[in-house]
Amino acid sequence: MSKAKTFGEFIMDGQAAFPFVSGQLTRLLTDIGVASKIVNHQVNRAGLAGILGEAGSINIQDEAQQKLDVYADSTFNRILASGGSVAGIGSEEQESPIICGDEGRKGKYIVLIDPLDGSSNVDVNVSIGTIFSIHRRVTPMGEPISDVDFLQPGVNQIASGYILYGSSTMLVYTTGSGVNGFTLDPAVGEFFLSHPAMEFPERGRIYSINDALLGKCSLPSRLFVDGCRQTRGARFRARYIGSLVADFHRNLIQGGIYLYPSLAKKPLGKLRLLYECAPLAFIAEQAGGMAIDDEGRVMDRIPTELHERSPYYVGNRNLIHAFLACQLAAKNRSMDTLPKREK
Ligand code: P6P
């Protein structure tokens, strides 16, 4: 049996298709692969390495940082900043962007990253993930980078992806020409192409939402879940791991929709636009799916701040269209309740 391509071989082949590229993106993607292997090693032995539990610090999200959050953040930042391809890094774990070498004058790319999403699940051995988004800098090379380099819409992404530290460790990414998945063989420390040309199945039958939120979330989400529960025939299944990367990955393979809606007390929901919603939206669209918020396509959303939140609905086209119908029904219902204009 011919050997499956390694992640390194695959990205080098991708570079060969663009002979005029500088190789900086190849270096950056390679560095992401290296950093993920290092983090994976610690995640897999967390219970032995005295690295479970809280770090005793609070991040910008006002969330207790897990020891592994801090470890993953420092590992990705150190490796990406030293590679020479990156001008700046926006991390969920850092209030302000990390400006790389010489005020960011040199690196060609900007990275936005959630170093370890769902990390509170580590202590109970549930899958967690890293999510990354890569943009080309906006400010000219040679000048210091600024906010405008980080606050770009999802449609500007050069690449995005995630690493899933699960029953096996996978790296899934896109550069805009489809989605490819690589599985880590721990025996040799290499990611091998295991899921070429990933696409959502034609139809999805899974919905992922925190049921405890239904009483507090927007009407479209409640209408959608009611619809799923009442559908006759090939019934829906509710699956919610509480780890976005794990839920997204299962829905990508089996077909489904993940919802984190706007809430009464959190009108923009919980998830972060730049390093959670937009990178997975790029993957979803490249895999034949869709990703929207309460206004429209997530990839079109122009961010105003680094840690901006967004309601998020991502998955199969048929399920997103069903959700859009619920948004319309909710809008019509609210209009029906408006006081009628006297004739
Ligand atoms: P809740 C993890 O904190 C996360 O950002 C996602 O990975 C996950 O889907 C979601 O939040 C879980 O949030 O409110 O359902 O516990």
How would you concisely characterize the structure shown here?
By secondary structure, the protein is of the alpha+beta class. It contains nine helices and 15 strands.
Shape summary: globular
Radius of gyration: 20 Å
Give helix % range: 25-40%
Q: How many distinct beta strands?
A: 15
Ligand inventory reads: 6-O-phosphono-alpha-D-fructofuranose
Largest sheet: 8 strands, mixed
Tell me the distance between the termini.
78 Å
Mean pLDDT: 91
What characteristics describe this protein?
five-stranded mixed sheet; 23% strand; D-Maltodextrin-Binding Protein, domain 2; binds 6-O-phosphono-alpha-D-fructofuranose; 15 strands; globular; eight-stranded mixed sheet; alpha+beta
Can you put this structure into words, describing what you see?
It is a single chain. By secondary structure, the protein is α+β, with helices and mostly antiparallel strands. It folds into two domains: 7-195, Fructose-1,6-Bisphosphatase, subunit A, domain 1 (Fructose-1,6-Bisphosphatase, Chain A, domain 1), CATH 3.30.540.10; 206-334, D-Maltodextrin-Binding Protein, domain 2, CATH 3.40.190.80. It is 33% helix and 23% strand. The strands form three sheets. It has an eight-stranded mixed beta sheet, sandwiched between helices. Helix 1 runs antiparallel to helix 2 and helix 6 (219-230) packs across helix 9. The chain is globular, with a radius of gyration of 20 Å. The N and C termini lie far apart (78 Å). The model has no long low-confidence stretch (mean pLDDT 91). Bound molecules: 6-O-phosphono-alpha-D-fructofuranose. 6-O-phosphono-alpha-D-fructofuranose binds at residues 117-118, 210, 242-244, 247, 270. 6-O-phosphono-alpha-D-fructofuranose is lined by residues 117-118, 210, 242-244, 247, 270.
